[in-house]
Prior knowledge:
Blueprint: H1 2-25, H2 30-52
Amino acid sequence: MTRQVTDVVYVVVMVAIIVAADIAFFRNHFWERLMANVGIVLVFVAFYLRFLRHS
């Protein structure tokens, strides 16, 4: 149960950061917003695979 809660919190934090970046910086810039969102997701995936997958 703890593992599932950790994963859910991780995804919620990722979504919150993406939404905050969209609102704060990329409101009317579609391609820049898309690239930033993909970059944020890639950073979160790399961090997850490096530190959280084996715990």
